């Protein structure tokens, strides 16, 4: 009897060792640890139909920040049938993480079924575009705002080649965007380049790339980004002020009202990090741009703070519209607030514990 018990315990110990060894491998590599069907994919195959969602990281950063992770994951949830592709400059096809991986957020994002992470190879990307000659002659080490300028160029080339929707990594998706060819108004008659979408090989983007090269000046902030989009849009369309919350349509593209993505303007960006005002319903918005470039104060998501950004990123299984409706019913009916969204459902922590592998289907 004693020998049988010893054998049984030894078997359990062996199985436990195998389990933890395999788990450690998941966090010690990149492409070799992705599911086989993901490892065999390539951007052309995934994005070729023009229906993908695209994010870009032009720095060498390998670990996505909590806000970046929130943006990518919210897009994956909002567009479950579409590929969400994250191009990262720090990746290459042979990149491996050390065994004591410090990149758990990367592993967590790669575990989402419709999220795919690829290297950002600008030299290859700009081939067969007007940006090729500019890129081959530029000295990135002496360029002003290079991370932003290279991102401006990359997003134009990717969406021109493959089509789809580009989003900045501080854009939190709320509901699907019902447009194919569109620009997002940051304010009346001024376009953003933080969110836009086009079908493949749209002539507007080709002309944007040509203008990018012809009027290149990295010393002027936004000259290759929102200012470029705005001056090209004015060449295409005779812009006018928006009437109420209605979009402006010109030729075969739409210029979407500022409420669609910028209901909180950049001078008020701190409102995202204040206690959530439940009168803010965002019923006319498809996504929210959090103006992270303005955040020089290092504000971030604080668990239990009940800030707007916390409710957007860690808000539980209810959709944003459901939360707003629930809050209004509570005020109208004076229903006592019995529980927080963050405490009555399982969710992941911004501290990224190793125990939180594959938690994403519980987030919303």
From TrEMBL:
GO terms for molecular function: acetylglucosaminyltransferase activity. This is Alpha-1,4-N-acetylglucosaminyltransferase. Residues 198-312 form the Alpha 1,4-glycosyltransferase domain. It comes from the Eukaryota. It is a single-pass type II membrane protein. Its main location: Golgi. Signal peptide: none annotated. Keywords: Glycosyltransferase, Golgi apparatus, Membrane, Transferase. GO terms for cellular component: Golgi membrane. It holds the Pfam family Gly_transf_sug. It is found in: Golgi apparatus membrane. InterPro entries: A1-4-GlycosylTfrase_dom, Glycosyltransf_32, GlycoTrfase_DXD_sugar-bd_CS, Nucleotide-diphossugar_trans. PROSITE patterns: PROKAR_LIPOPROTEIN. Belongs to the glycosyltransferase 32 family. GO terms for biological process: protein O-linked glycosylation. The gene is A4GNT.
């Amino acid at each position: 009897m004693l020998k049988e018990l010893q054998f049984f315990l030894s078997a359990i110990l062996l199985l436990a060792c195998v389990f933890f060894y395999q788990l450690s491998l998941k966090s010690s590599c990149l492409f070799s640890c992705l599911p086989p069907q993901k490892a065999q994919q390539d951007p052309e195959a995934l994005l070729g139909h023009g229906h993908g969602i695209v994010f870009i990281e032009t720095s060498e950063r390998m670990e996505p920040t909590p806000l970046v992770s929130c943006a990518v994951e919210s897009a994956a949830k909002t567009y479950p049938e579409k590929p969400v592709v994250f191009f990262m400059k720090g990746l290459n096809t042979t990149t491996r993480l050390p065994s004591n991986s410090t990149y758990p957020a990367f592993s967590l994002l790669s575990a989402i079924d419709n999220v795919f992470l690829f290297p950002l190879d600008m030299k290859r990307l700009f081939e067969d575009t007007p940006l090729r000659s500019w890129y081959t002659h530029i000295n990135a080490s002496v360029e002003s705002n290079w991370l932003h300028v290279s991102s401006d160029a990359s997003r134009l080339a990717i969406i021109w080649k493959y089509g789809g929707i580009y989003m900045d990594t501080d854009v939190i998706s709320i509901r699907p965007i019902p447009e194919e060819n569109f620009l997002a108004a940051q304010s009346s008659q001024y376009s953003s380049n933080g969110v836009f979408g086009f079908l493949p090989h749209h002539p507007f983007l080709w002309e944007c790339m040509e203008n990018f090269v012809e009027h290149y000046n990295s010393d002027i902030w936004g000259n290759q980004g929102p200012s470029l989009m705005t001056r090209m849009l004015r060449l295409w369309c005779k812009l006018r002020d928006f009437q109420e919350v209605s979009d402006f349509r010109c030729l075969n593209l739409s210029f979407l009202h500022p409420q669609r993505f910028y209901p909180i303007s950049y001078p008020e960006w701190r409102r995202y990090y204040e206690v959530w005002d439940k009168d803010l319903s965002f019923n006319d918005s498809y996504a929210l741009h959090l103006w992270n470039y303005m955040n020089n104060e290092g504000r971030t998501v604080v668990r239990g703070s009940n800030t707007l950004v916390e409710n957007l990123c860690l808000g539980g299984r209810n959709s944003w519209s459901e939360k707003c409706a629930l809050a209004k019913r509570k005020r109208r009916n004076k229903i006592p607030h019995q529980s927080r969204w963050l405490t009555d459902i399982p969710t992941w922590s911004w501290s990224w514990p190793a125990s939180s592998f594959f938690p994403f289907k519980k987030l919303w």
